[in-house]
Automatic annotation (TrEMBL):
Compositionally biased spans, kind Polar residues: 1-21, 358-371, 561-570, 597-610
Residue segments, region Disordered: 1-31, 355-374, 537-614, 762-874
Protein name according to UniProt: RRM domain-containing protein
Key words of the record: RNA-binding
Keyword RNA-binding: yes
InterPro entries in the cross-refs: RBD_domain_sf
Cross-referenced PANTHER family: RNA BINDING PROTEIN
Lineage, top ranks: Eukaryota, Fungi, Fungi incertae sedis, Chytridiomycota, Chytridiomycota incertae sedis
GO terms assigned for molecular function: RNA binding
Composition bias, Basic and acidic residues: 792-823
Length: 874
C-alpha cells in the first residue's frame, strides 16, 4: 500500500547513516551535539529542548549526549546560540552529520494493523525507567511490560508510534492483537443485509461513532493516519458530530476493521449500508503552489493546520473569509501531491487557489515563490503586510512593545506555533526593524509577509470596565498580562482554563473609559479576540456575596463545567467560573474534635473531581501531587463490603488557588484522555491526623483507608517509599511494615500530608513467626499487661476473635446502639489514658484486673469511632 503524504512519517527510518559533507553540497552541517548535564537525563533534556529550540527534525539518543538534526544549517546555528546562551548547556556542531534515511529498511514495523500495544526497540543504555518516562509524555500511555508499551486506545498508540519513529532513533511497531480480544465473526457481525428473497447485500463501508474529543487529538489528521493503516482502506468521509464513514476495498477488510476497532479502541464500529453523499468537487483550477480549502464543522482552522503541517513542503496557512483558508507550499509539486491525496482519501473540498486573471483589479494575494499572484477569494477583509517573525520571544518582554518601538509598526500577530510577528506599513520599515532585532535578540528573526483578517466583536454585550480576552495556546499568561497591563487604568487580570482546554482571561480597568480605549487599541493593533465581559463588573466580586452560577446540567442534576470547544470558535462565550470572594462554608459535623485535628479546606473552584482515573493509583497520585499548587489527593471508591453493586473509582485533588486548579485541567486530560475532569460541586474538607494521635514511633504504620483502595493499589503506593517490606491489608484499614523507624516516619509524614489516608504508628509487634503468617491465620498479636510489659499471644486470629467476642458479649446491646448512630453526628475527643472515652474503650477491650491484660484490637472496628485511635499508643 503506497503511503500518503499525510502519513509519510511512517516511512521514515529509525536508523541514521553518517554522510560526509566535504564534497556534497546537500549535506550541510545540520547536526548539533548536546552534552547531557549532570542535573538532567536524556528525557528531561529532550523536553527542555523541544520547548526552547525551534526547527528540530529529529533527536538522536546517544550515551551521555543528544544529537539534534535540523533541516538546514541556519537553524542549527541558531539552536547552538540559544542552547549555549539561554540554557547554559554545552552545544556545538557535530563532527559528522546525521541524516534521515528516507527509505524504510524494516517493513515489518508496519506489518501489523493498529493496536493499543507498541513494541519499542531502544539502545542498551536506555533503561526501563528512561523508556517509561519518555512514554509518559504521550497521551493515553498506561504501562510497560518489558519492550511492550500499553496504551488505553489504539489512536494514542498510533500517535506515539508516529512520533517515536519520526522524531527519535528509537523504533516502534504495533504489537499483535491477542486472540482473546478478537471479535467473533458470527452471522450478526458480518456486514451484510438481506435485500430480497435469495439476495444478500454485503457492505464494504463502516460507520465509526464515539470518536474521542480531546485537545491533543485532531479528528481529520489522526483518524486519517490511523485508518489508512488498515488493510484495504480506500476513503474516509467525515461528518459533523464526531462520526465518519470508511470505505474498504472488499467486505472482508471491512469485517476485519470492525473487529479490530471494537477490540482496540473505545469507538463504536458497525457496518454501514447507507451513508451521506460526498460533496461534489469543482473542476481543478490551474496548477499553483497554494491550495484553497473549505473549512467544515469537523475541520476547524486548528485541525487544518495540524493536517497540512505533517505534509512535505508545507509553509503557511491563512484564513480566507469565514469558512475557507489558503494553504501555501514551497512548490507546486508538494501542493499537487497533497491535493491528490486528500481528494482521493477524504471528502474535503479542496482546489488550487485561483490565479489572478488579466483585466481584473488587483486583489489581496499571497506571495508565491513562482512569481505569480495567487488570488485569495472570499477575503474582502483580508490584509497583507510585510513583517518580522520572532520564533523565541525574550522572556519578560511586552509582545507588542517588542515591535511597536520601531517606526511604521501596524499590527501584532500571535501565531499558532508560539512565534510573534510584527507587521509594518512598508518593506523598508520591516527591514529596519529586522536589523535592530537581530542585534538585540539571541534568536534569528526572519522577514515575512503575513495576511490577516480583522476581528469584529459582537455588539450585544453591555459595556463595562471588565474585558473578556480569548486566549489561544500561542499566547502565555505572562505575555497576555504584560500586554494588557501596559494600558492606562489597568487594575487586575486573571486567566482561567475551561474544562474543554480553552483559555480565557478577564482584565479589569479603573473605568469604562479606560476599558474602551484598551479595547479599541487591542482590536486595531493585535489579532486578539477581545470584547466586553458578559458578566460585567460582577466578575471581580463587585456583586457582593454572590454565589457562583453555573450553566448546563451536572452529574446530580445541578450544573456542569464542561464547555464545548466548538462554541469558542464561533462566539466569545465565557466559562462558568466566577470570582467569588465570599468565605467558604464551614463543615457543621466533624468526626473528630477540632482541637485534635487540623482540617485542610479547599473551595469548589480550587478542588478538581476526577472520574474514571487510571488503574495505577501510585502513578496517578505522583502525577497529581506534582502539579503546581496541588496539596492533597483524595482517592475514593464506590465499592463497599457486603454490597452486590460496585461503582467506579474517583478522586478529589485539592489546590491552593482556583488558578492552579484551572491550569492543571488540560495537563490531566492530556495525560489520561479517558479521565473526566470537573470542578467539585461543593467545598471539600479533609481531616489530618494530629501529632498527639500519631503515637510512639515504630516500624509499623496503621493506615486508615476507609475502602478507598484495593490491596494492589495500596501496595503500589507504598512501594514508592524507601524501606517498605510488606502489607497486611483489610478493606477498612491496613498495616504496613518497614525496615527502619526512619523509613516508617518518612512514609507516615508524606501520606498524611499528600493523601486522604489517616496514618499513625502501630504498637503491634512487627516480629511475626512467618512472613506469610497473616495470610495463614497465625498472626501473633502482642498483648500488654496492666504494668506495661509485653507478652506474645500465639493464638490464631480466628480463636483470638472468638475469645474477644465472648469477652464483649455483655456489652453487645450497648455497642449496637452506638453503631446505629450516624457517624457524622458523633464527636470524639482525644484524651489521656484512664479518663473519658479512652478508659471506656479500654474497658470494652477487656482491660482491668479481672483478666490481667489488655489486648489491642486493630483489625475489627467495634464502634463508629475513628479506627486508628484504637491502634495508637497513648
Amino acid at each position: 500500500m503506497a503511503m500518503s503524504p499525510v502519513s509519510n512519517t511512517f516511512d521514515r527510518s529509525s536508523s541514521l547513516r553518517q554522510v560526509s559533507s566535504a564534497h556534497d553540497e546537500s549535506s550541510q552541517r545540520r547536526t548539533v551535539y548536546v552534552a547531557v548535564p549532570r542535573d538532567h537525563d536524556h528525557v528531561s533534556l529532550r523536553e527542555i529542548l523541544l520547548d526552547t529550540v525551534d526547527g528540530i527534525s529529529k533527536i538522536h539518543f546517544a550515551h551521555g549526549n543528544l544529537f539534534l538534526i535540523f533541516n538546514n544549517s541556519s537553524q542549527a546555528d541558531a539552536a547552538i546560540a540559544t542552547i549555549n546562551d539561554s540554557l547554559h548547556i554545552k552545544a556545538q556542531v557535530a563532527r559528522t552529520d546525521l541524516h534521515d534515511d528516507t527509505h524504510n529498511p524494516d517493513q515489518r514495523r508496519h506489518s501489523n494493523e493498529p493496536s493499543a500495544t507498541l513494541i519499542i526497540s531502544a539502545p542498551r543504555f536506555f533503561t526501563k525507567d528512561l523508556l517509561e518516562r519518555l512514554l509518559q509524555t504521550y497521551p493515553g500511555f498506561e504501562s510497560t511490560d518489558g519492550r511492550k508499551a500499553h496504551f488505553s486506545d489504539a489512536i494514542w498508540a498510533c500517535k506515539a508510534l508516529v512520533d517515536v519513529n519520526s522524531g527519535t532513533n528509537l523504533t516502534a511497531q504495533f504489537g499483535r492483537l491477542a486472540q482473546s480480544l478478537e471479535v467473533e465473526r458470527n452471522g450478526d457481525e458480518r456486514p451484510k443485509v438481506t435485500v430480497g428473497e435469495g439476495r444478500v447485500r454485503i457492505s464494504r463501508s463502516v460507520e465509526i461513532r464515539d470518536i474521542p474529543r480531546s485537545s491533543n487529538f485532531s479528528l481529520v489528521k489522526d483518524m486519517l493516519g490511523m485508518l489508512s493503516l488498515y488493510r484495504g482502506f480506500v476513503k474516509v468521509a467525515f461528518q459533523p458530530g464526531n462520526v465518519c464513514f470508511v470505505d474498504f476495498a472488499d467486505p472482508e477488510s471491512a469485517t476485519t476493521a470492525i473487529s479490530r476497532i471494537r477490540a482496540t479502541t473505545q469507538m463504536t464500529a458497525v457496518a454501514a449500508f447507507k451513508r451521506p453523499n460526498d460533496p461534489g468537487h469543482f473542476p481543478l483550477e490551474r496548477l499553483a503552489s497554494a491550495l484553497f480549502v473549505r473549512l467544515e464543522p469537523f475541520l476547524k482552522e486548528k485541525d487544518a493546520r495540524a493536517l497540512f503541517d505533517a505534509m512535505e513542503g508545507f509553509q503557511e496557512i491563512v484564513a480566507a473569509g469565514q469558512n475557507h483558508c489558503i494553504v501555501r507550499f514551497n512548490s507546486t509539486t508538494s501542493a499537487q501531491e497533497a491535493l491528490e491525496h486528500l481528494r482521493r482519501a477524504t471528502n474535503l473540498v479542496i482546489n488550487y487557489a485561483k490565479n489572478q486573471r488579466r483585466g481584473q483589479s488587483a486583489s489581496k494575494s499571497l506571495p508565491n515563490p513562482t512569481g505569480k499572484s495567487v488570488e485569495v477569494r472570499h477575503s474582502a477583509d483580508m490584509n497583507e503586510l510585510p513583517g518580522v517573525r520572532v520564533t523565541n520571544p525574550p522572556f519578560g518582554a511586552n509582545a507588542k512593545e517588542l515591535f511597536s518601538i520601531y517606526n511604521g509598526f501596524k499590527r501584532l500577530i500571535c501565531d499558532e506555533d508560539g512565534s510573534l510577528i510584527g507587521l509594518y506599513e512598508s518593506e523598508d520599515a520591516a527591514k529596519r526593524a529586522l536589523a535592530e532585532l537581530r542585534r538585540s535578540l539571541s534568536s534569528e528573526p526572519t522577514l515575512v509577509r503575513k495576511s490577516y483578517s480583522t476581528y469584529r466583536p459582537s455588539d450585544d454585550v453591555v459595556p463595562s470596565a471588565v474585558l473578556y480576552v480569548d486566549l489561544h495556546a500561542a499566547l502565555t499568561e505572562g505575555q497576555a498580562k504584560r500586554l494588557l497591563s501596559a494600558y492606562n487604568g489597568f487594575v487586575d487580570f486573571k486567566v482561567f482554563m475551561k474544562t474543554s482546554g480553552d483559555q480565557y482571561g478577564l482584565v479589569q480597568y479603573a473605568s469604562l473609559a479606560h476599558a474602551k480605549i484598551a479595547l479599541e487599541d487591542i482590536l486595531a493593533t493585535t489579532n486578539l479576540r477581545v470584547n466586553y465581559s458578559r458578566k460585567g463588573e460582577t466578575a471581580f466580586g463587585a456583586g457582593g456575596n454572590q454565589v457562583p452560577k453555573r450553566r448546563g446540567s451536572s452529574r446530580s442534576g445541578g450544573s456542569s463545567t464542561v464547555a464545548s470547544r466548538e462554541n469558542v470558535s464561533t462566539r466569545l462565550d465565557e466559562d462558568e467560573i466566577e470570582f467569588d470572594k465570599t468565605s467558604p462554608p464551614q463543615l457543621k459535623n466533624s468526626i473528630v474534635d477540632e482541637s485534635a485535628r487540623t482540617p485542610t479546606t479547599a473551595g469548589p473552584k480550587s478542588t478538581l473531581h476526577l472520574t474514571s482515573p487510571p488503574p495505577n493509583k501510585a502513578v496517578l497520585k505522583n502525577f497529581l501531587i506534582n502539579q503546581v499548587g496541588a496539596t492533597r489527593v483524595m482517592l475514593k471508591r464506590l465499592t463497599r463490603p457486603n454490597l452486590s453493586t460496585t461503582g467506579g473509582d474517583y478522586c478529589f485533588v485539592l489546590f491552593t488557588t482556583a488558578e492552579a486548579a484551572s491550569r492543571a485541567i488540560p495537563k490531566i486530560v492530556e495525560r489520561w484522555p479517558a479521565c473526566s475532569v470537573d470542578y467539585a460541586r461543593n467545598e471539600y474538607v479533609s481531616e489530618t491526623v494530629n501529632e498527639l494521635e500519631i503515637g510512639k514511633e515504630s516500624k509499623v504504620l496503621y493506615i486508615l483507608t476507609l475502602y478507598s483502595v484495593t490491596y494492589s493499589e495500596l501496595d503500589e503506593i507504598l512501594r514508592e517509599y524507601e524501606g517498605y517490606k510488606e502489607l497486611e491489608y483489610a478493606p477498612h484499614h491496613s498495616r504496613a511494615y518497614f525496615n527502619t523507624v526512619a523509613n516508617a516516619r518518612n512514609a507516615l509524614e508524606d501520606l498524611n500530608k499528600t493523601t486522604g489516608f489517616q496514618c499513625a504508628f502501630s504498637n503491634v509487634s512487627n516480629q511475626r513467626s512467618h512472613p506469610d503468617s497473616a495470610k495463614r491465620g497465625n498472626r501473633r498479636i502482642q498483648g500488654r499487661h496492666v504494668n506495661g510489659s509485653a507478652v506474645d499471644d500465639t493464638r490464631s486470629t480466628d480463636q483470638w476473635d472468638k475469645d474477644r467476642d465472648d469477652a464483649n458479649e455483655g456489652e453487645g446491646t450497648k455497642m449496637k446502639k452506638e453503631t446505629e448512630k450516624p457517624l457524622k453526628t458523633r464527636r470524639y475527643k482525644h484524651s489521656g489514658p484512664g479518663s473519658g472515652s479512652g478508659s471506656d474503650k479500654n474497658r470494652r477491650n477487656g482491660s482491668g484486673t479481672e483478666n490481667g491484660a489488655k489486648r489491642e484490637v486493630a483489625d475489627v472496628v467495634q464502634a463508629s469511632e475513628p479506627a486508628f485511635l484504637n491502634d495508637v499508643q497513648r
